[in-house]
Write a structure and sequence with these properties.
It is a single chain. The chain is an alpha/beta fold. It has one domain: 2-Layer Sandwich (Nucleotidyltransferase, domain 5), CATH 3.30.420.10. About 40% of the residues lie in helices and about 20% in strands. The chain has six helices and six strands, in the order ββαααβαβαβαβ. It has a six-stranded mixed sheet with strand order 5-4-1-2-3-6, sandwiched between helices. β4, α5 and β5 form a beta-alpha-beta unit. α1 runs antiparallel to α3 and α1 crosses α6. It is globular. The chain starts with a strand and ends with a strand.
């Protein structure tokens, strides 16, 4: 079964005059046939922590809270695993009026575009497909809208879509750090992290609205 872990970086705000609004928004997919090596890579990071570090992490990694050394250790470990990375990128300066629509609809469309690219590269359509997305919304209706939209767009048989808190899923914690790294490269022109994982990157696609 192919597993696709999804995570986003940046925001969908449109007022670029605000310092907190990012120019770019990206959605990242980490694709693997077996999620266990990815999960084990994250677990190995915890094994290297002191007791105090493990206590402060509460069993979860998050890119913005980690040290540079921790991010680099995980990216290096992931680069040695049989994974593929796909990214879709939106440059808000290049986008039109649609960007000012419903952010949830835009996110759903982004996710369908990215998953379509991932599925197109998988040669065995008979294999099951598991899509695991980080829980972005606390309202169950919005989460169900996301699942329903993807179900209508992804036609591959035996597709299962899960929305999980990132704190409960090591695969989502891994893709969070990958996505953060590529967002930093795109938004801040800092490739010091992505250079460690670029061997697994299948491409960055531009999306405009």
């Amino acid at each position: 079964m192919t597993t696709i872990f999804l995570d986003e970086s940046g925001d969908l705000g449109t007022d670029l005059s605000k310092r907190a609004t990012s120019r770019h928004f990206i959605l990242t997919a980490l694709v693997c046939d077996d999620p266990r090596p990815v999960e084990n890579a994250v677990k190995q990071i915890f094994r290297g922590f002191s007791k105090t570090e493990r206590k402060n992490h509460h069993g979860s990694l998050h890119a913005t809270h980690e040290t540079a050394a921790t991010r680099r250790r995980l990216l290096t470990a992931l680069s040695k695993i049989d994974i593929l990375i796909y990214i879709v990128r939106l440059d808000k300066r290049e986008s039109g009026a649609k960007l000012r629509g419903n952010p949830q609809d835009l996110y759903n469309s982004f996710a369908a575009t990215l998953i379509g690219q991932c599925v197109a590269q998988q040669h065995n359509d008979e294999d099951g497909l598991r899509i695991v997305a980080s829980q972005r919304e606390t309202k169950s209706l919005l989460n169900q809208d996301f699942v329903s939209y993807l179900e209508s767009q992804v036609t591959r048989p035996a597709t299962r879509i899960e929305i999980r808190p990132a704190t409960n899923d090591k695969g989502l914690q891994a893709v969070d750090i990958v996505s953060w790294s590529y967002f930093r490269q795109i938004e801040r022109h800092d490739g010091s992290y992505t250079s460690l994982i670029d061997s697994r990157l299948q491409g960055i696609s531009e999306v405009s609205y």
